[in-house]
Design goal:
The complex is a heterodimer.
Chain A: H1 3-28, H2 37-65, H3 69-74, H4 107-128, H5 134-163, H6 166-184, H7 193-198, H8 210-222, H9 246-255
Helix pairs in contact in A: 1-2, 2-5, 4-5, 4-6, 4-8, 5-6
Chain B: H1 3-15, H2 28-47, H3 49-53, H4 62-88, H5 93-101, H6 118-139, H7 145-173, H8 177-196, H9 208-211, H10 219-236, E1 247-249, E2 254-256, H11 262-272, H12 276-289, H13 291-298
Antiparallel strand pairs in B: 1-2
Helix pairs in contact in B: 2-4, 4-7, 6-7, 6-8, 6-10
The chains are: A mainly alpha, B mainly alpha.
Chain lengths: 267, 305
């Protein structure tokens, strides 16, 4: 690896790690409030896997930037996180000690987000497995083993909602329509990806995965007669540059709340 | 043999150590008490996820984040195992949840309080779970064999929660003044609920759950066990227990402590604790928002790819 590739590689690692971290945080919120207790347990496992993957990738990024994984996960400024915007909104209700809880739990959105993201992540980890940077190629093997189970879980719910009673099907279609631009935002590349491709650290850029993803998504829609939204629609971008929405403001505030009390303390 | 003789014979058998299986004949009173007892236990595991759940997003390191998530996942998993036992005893899951959110059935006193800081996360995982282990270990000798077996698995997992909680407390107690204060204040909030945890010191001979062998150790004995095991440990790590009357009486071999106001316990578990209605409201909200999902599942959708 040339010295010029270090910075883009660190940024790329942070981008993937942030995706996994933020989805892991949002999915962990189902613990205790999922539709059936079996899914409290399942979503909690998914969340722990994602956080574990994030930690693995932050560790690699930390080696390149002489810091530590917790520093990267919990102590960067709010605008220095690079996850896709799809991953940051809250899909569960929010507890308020006053009893004035915020409604808005949406299981269909939680499932659509997971499924569209996991199909993307499957393609992304597939190309990363070919990376010429050995620590990354090795780490991603472990990630891929677990992600296989995630896809199976997503597909089970996708088929249940798409093929079940009308209400579930309608909610699924509404969730797809609402999330589609955000899902396309997954393909916004991290700055410097071309350099990584030029050096063989990545075989393809993230943007080049879009067509393959549509080829994976289309049959899942067609199987249930769900119309595929326009794949040339304008994607919700900005996430890879640290530009996020209100979901991230809320999450960032919560996830750093305790740490900020004593930022340098042992916890 | 008359019904009464049959019931007396059953009672003598369980008192002599006989274990009852799900398919065995059992007196209606036994079934009713067992259902109520296990259902409250299951509800407590499920409602117990809520106070800690607020801190899943707030854990201060990645390792703590993973541990807190896994810990709460265990609690919900325990609820799942226990609800299955209640279903086997004849109460459908839908009914169980309806009764919980309408306030008809109860859950444990400690889950009616708010959590205010990271200190609460440590104190709950360490000491509330420690108090729970004492009653749950005794339940491994329950006369109802499926319950006793489930408790063996649950106790095994709870032992990890204790370590996790103690580690959170210990790390902060070795930290800055502010971190120590978080823990001391949390202990002060939780001490009274902890002292109420095992219930009022009812004379064993009037406790019907003991008589049927559903539980095997009286309330006061469980509290004494807890104090014997943890008072010194709490003090050793530098925390001050907020009870000036607490002391071990060599003469009686028992702990003396400030008697909790037991009418307050009753007020709390009947849904009038500081966080009771907020928690039930949240449970109701999440239950209503996901009702359509359960319809998809019960409508025969197969959750297979």
């Amino acid at each position: 690896m040339t010295p010029e590739a270090r910075e883009p590689l660190a940024r790329y690692l942070l981008t993937i790690a942030d995706d996994e971290l933020v989805l892991g945080y949002r999915d962990s919120e189902w613990t205790g409030v999922a539709p059936i207790v079996e899914e409290d347990v399942a979503f909690s496992s998914l969340a722990q896997d994602e956080i574990g993957h994030a930690r693995l990738l932050y560790t690699l990024a930390a080696e390149l930037t002489a810091t530590d994984p917790d520093q990267l996960a919990l102590r960067r400024p709010k605008g220095d996180y690079y996850h896709a915007r799809l991953l940051e909104f809250r899909a569960t209700p929010k507890y308020d000690p006053s009893g004035q809880h915020q409604a808005g739990g949406d299981w269909a959105k939680a499932i659509v987000r997971r499924y569209l993201y996991d199909l993307f992540d499957d393609l992304r980890t597939e190309i990363i497995a070919e990376s010429s940077y050995p620590p990354l190629a090795a780490a991603i093997q472990k990630v891929r083993r677990e992600e296989r189970y995630h896809l199976r879980h997503d597909e089970a719910w996708w088929h249940a909602l798409a093929g079940g009673p009308a209400e579930g099907r309608e909610r699924l279609e509404r969730a797809i329509a609402a999330l589609w631009p955000d899902a396309l935002g997954l393909f916004e590349p991290a700055p410097g990806e071309e350099r990584l491709v030029a050096e063989g650290i990545l075989p393809l850029t993230t943007a080049e995965l879009r067509l393959r993803w549509v080829e994976r998504v289309a049959p899942a829609f067609a199987r249930h007669g769900i119309p595929l939204p326009d794949e040339r629609a304008a994607p919700a971008v900005g996430g890879r540059r640290g530009e996020h929405g209100p979901g991230w403001d809320e999450l960032y505030d919560e996830m750093t709340m305790v740490r900020r009390l004593e930022p340098d303390g042992a916890w | 043999m008359t019904d009464e003789q049959r019931i007396e014979e059953f009672k003598r058998a369980v008192q002599a150590g006989h274990k009852v299986e799900a398919g065995d004949w059992m007196p209606e009173e036994y079934r009713a008490r067992l259902t109520k007892f296990i259902e409250m236990h299951a509800n407590s595991e499920l409602m117990g996820a809520l106070p800690e759940r607020d801190w899943i997003l707030r854990a201060p390191t990645l390792q703590r984040k993973l541990a807190v998530t896994a810990k709460i996942q265990d609690e919900v998993g325990h609820a799942q195992l226990l609800y299955r036992l209640v279903e086997d005893l004849g109460k459908p899951r839908e009914q169980i949840f309806q009764d919980l959110i309408s306030g008809k059935t109860k859950f444990h006193n400690v889950f009616h309080y708010p959590t205010k800081s990271w200190g609460d996360v440590g104190i709950i995982a360490w000491l509330v779970d420690a108090a729970a282990i004492h009653s749950q270990s005794a339940l491994q000798r329950s006369s109802y064999a499926p319950y006793a077996r489930t408790m063996r698995r649950i106790c095994w997992e709870e032992a990890f929660h204790l370590k996790h909680g103690e580690d959170i407390v210990l790390t902060c107690m070795m930290g800055t003044a502010r971190q120590k204060r978080l823990m001391q204040e949390a202990l002060e909030r939780w001490w009274e609920p902890l002292m109420m945890f095992h219930g009022p010191p009812a004379p064993p001979e009037t406790d019907k759950d003991l008589e049927w062998g559903i539980k095997s150790r009286p309330n006061e004995q469980l509290r004494q066990d807890f104090l014997t095991k943890y008072v010194r440990r709490i003090q050793e790590i530098g925390l001050t227990i907020p009870d000036p009357k607490l002391r071990y009486d060599e003469r009686t071999g028992r702990w003396a402590y400030t008697e909790p106001d037991w009418s307050k316990l009753y007020t709390i578990v009947t849904g009038n604790g500081p966080a009771s209605q907020a928690r039930l409201g949240f449970r109701r909200l999440s239950y209503e928002e996901t009702a359509w999902v359960r319809q998809v599942v019960t409508g025969g959708a197969q959750l297979t790819a």
